[in-house]
Structures are given as structure tokens and as C-alpha cells.
Amino acid sequence: TQLLEQSPQFLSIQEGENLTVYCNSSSVFSSLQWYRQEPGEGPVLLVTVVTGGEVKKLKRLTFQFGDARKDSSLHITAAQPGDTGLYLCAADAMGGSQGNLIFGKGTKLSVKP
Amino acid sequence: DTAVSQTPKYLVTQMGNDKSIKCEQNLGHDTMYWYKQDSKKFLKIMFSYNNKELIINETVPNRFSPKSPDKAHLNLHINSLELGDSAVYFCASSQDPMYYGYTFGSGTRLTVV
């Protein structure tokens, strides 16, 4: 069974701090995605990483795919209250297109002003 | 225009009842999905439909049945509702989940009393 383990489960920080959340697995994935979910809404895709070692930046968010394509990290610089939400990583379950995605259990981030 | 819309947003019903949740996407995607998010925010796939053909059924109870009248719609019917069915149900669509991820609806919170 392919599992995505996310850590930490909860994170509460002050505005302006930096943070990193992790997504780990023992399985190799063709691609990995990060989503952010706000209360009462569905998850929204932030980024897809495909190549081992790949780094992508989205404003203050930096995403990295592990060299072995088994893990990923999300780093937020100078967090703001608007970054508050549930961060989910997801990966293709069996590889290949039109398959389903499996999701981690998420990191719930709270950024206090 | 909302890309993936699902109705109703909230659904409170008694045990034993039969209910339906509707989902429509206007993105022209080939595949649609239903996911269940439990109280711990864990997202688990229930079904996916590709061009009106069921391609994944993750051993959900047969009280749950997806119905797709056309490529843009995937409805979820639930018979004989049980307390344990209480959760948030998300509809999603995708053209190529491995690279472009999913577009989610805003969810239907089902409460069985």
C-alpha cells in the first residue's frame, strides 16, 4: 500500500516566521503535487513536481521533490495570515495517467498576526 | 463561472434515507472523481469516471453508486444512509492528474442523524 506521510500534523506560528512541511513515502512516484485547502472549500492545486531534485517557487513558497522521487518539502518564507490552511501532498497511486491520486493526511498551518 | 460545482453544500438527513449529490464541471475534462474526506481531513477516493465508464471503484459499499449522464456530470447516489457516512464529499475533475492535478468542487457536508 502506498502511503504519504506528512509532518508536522499541526503547525502554529507567528507572522513573519519561516516554516517547512514534509511529505514522505517509501514508494517512488512519477509526480507529486501540493494542494492548499481552506475551511469550507475544496483543495486547490499549488504545484506539480515531476523530476527528481526539482525545485519550484511560487512567490514565498518553495517546493522541492526529492532526488529519489519518494519525498517532497514545502518551505514558506515570511509566513502571512493568508497562508493559513491545510496543506496536502498528493501523488499518483500506481503511476501513469488517468489513475487516481492518493493524498497525505495534511499539515494544518495557522499563522497568527 | 464555477469550474466544478456540486450541490447541495450541506445535507442533513436521517439514517436509512436515500440521497443524491450532484456534480458538474465545465472544464471539458475527461475524468471525474468522488472523494470522501473524513473528520480527520483524510481524503480517500471513492470513484472515478472516464468518458462515462467507471474505471476505479475503491471497494466502497454498494450503497454508494455513481451515475454519469454525460461527460460533464457525475452524481453520487447513496442508499440506506448510515451514521458512518457522515463526512465531506468532494467532486473533482482532471484531464491528466499526473501533470495537472485535480480541480475540486467546494464539497458537500453530509450529516446523518
How would you sum up this structure, described in words?
The complex is a heterodimer of chains A (113) and B (113). The model of chain A has no long low-confidence stretch (mean pLDDT 92). In chain A, the strands form two sheets. In chain A, strands 2, 4, 5, 9, 10 and 11 form a six-stranded mixed beta sheet that branches. Chain A has strands at residues 5-7, 10-14, 19-24, 32-37, 44-49, 55-58, 61-65, 71-76, 85-92, 101-103, 107-112. The relative contact order of chain A is 0.33. Chain A is built from no helices and eleven strands. In chain B, strand 4 and strand 5 form a beta hairpin. In chain B, the strands form two sheets. In chain B, strands 2, 4, 5, 6, 9, 10 and 11 form a seven-stranded mixed beta sheet that branches. Chain B has a four-stranded antiparallel beta sheet with strand order 1-3-8-7, with no helix packed on it. The mean pLDDT of chain B is 92. Chain B is mainly beta and 113 residues long. Helix content of chain B is 4%, strand content 56%. Chain B is globular and about 40 Å long. Chain B contains one helix and eleven strands, in the order βββββββββαββ. The chains are: A mainly beta (113), B mainly beta (113). The A-B interface holds A 30-31, 33, 35, 37, 40-45, 48, 50, 86, 88, 90, 92, 96-103, 105-106, 108 and B 4, 30-31, 33, 40-45, 48, 50, 55-56, 58, 90, 92, 96-107.
